[in-house]
Write a structure and sequence with these properties.
The complex is a heterodimer. Chain A is α+β, with helices and mostly antiparallel strands. Chain A has five helices and four strands; from the N terminus they run αβαβαββαα. Chain A has a single domain, classed as Glutaredoxin, CATH 3.40.30.10. By secondary structure, chain B is of the alpha+beta class. Chain B has one domain: 2-Layer Sandwich (GMP Synthetase, Chain A, domain 3), CATH 3.30.300. The termini of chain B are far apart. The chains are: A alpha+beta, B alpha+beta. Chains A and B meet through strand 4 and helix 4 of A and helix 3 and strand 3 of B.
Chain lengths: ~110, ~90
């Protein structure tokens, strides 16, 4: 499986996935830390991929969504953006909606 | 360091004909943190007002800025904060 297939599988098998540097507990970059906090503030349950742990994914994700920076947020397979876009959407109340919709449609209970 | 600001300014002006463009170099605030040593290490804040952003969503605006910067983005810029406004919003 090449790296693009691997990324496709990651973004399609998780409703909400954040590509970041480090982990939510130990972000290795301020922008990744901010992205994590925004998702947590939305009450999101999200998967993360630490690109520092996987150099192939780190390069591959930039091509996958044609987006040159990390962090990158994907909801339901769609690139939402980096931490600036997330902050802006959060301030408009739109990130909360995207998260709620993504989680609402996947609930089995 | 100022070379990089000039390069960013040049590329953004050429591609997006901004009505207003401010570039802050914040690299000194981040020198030394782990991620900054690779990829040139530059941290910049850009505020840009351009008619190109009218009617475009945020994702698309950021893409326009990234596309305008091309390989400068990959070589010199480690982090870029973007405020992209249309003339109506500025």
């Amino acid at each position: 499986m090449n790296v693009q297939d691997k990324i496709r599988q990651q973004v399609e098998s998780n409703d909400i996935v954040l590509y970041m540097k480090g982990t939510p507990q130990f972000p290795q970059c301020g922008f990744s830390g901010r992205a994590t906090q925004l998702l947590q503030a939305c009450g999101a349950k999200f998967a993360t991929v630490d690109v520092l742990a996987d150099p192939e994914v780190r390069e591959g994700i930039k091509q996958y969504g044609n987006w040159p920076t990390i962090p990158q947020l994907y909801i339901k397979g769609q690139l939402i953006g980096g931490s600036d876009v997330m902050m802006d959407l959060y301030q408009k109340g739109e990130l909360q909606k995207l998260v709620a919709e993504a989680q609402g449609t996947s609930k089995t209970s | 360091m100022t070379d990089r600001v000039a390069e960013i300014e040049h590329k953004l002006r050429a591609a997006l004909q901004p009505l207003k463009l401010e570039i802050e170099d914040e690299s000194h605030k981040h020198a030394g943190h782990a991620g900054a040593r690779e990829s040139g290490g530059g941290h910049f804040n850009v505020t840009i007002v351009s008619a190109a952003f009218t009617g475009q969503g945020l994702l698309q605006r950021h893409r326009l800025v990234y596309d305008a910067l091309g390989d400068t983005m990959r070589r010199e810029i480690h982090a870029l904060s973007i405020r992209a406004l249309s003339p109506e919003e500025a």
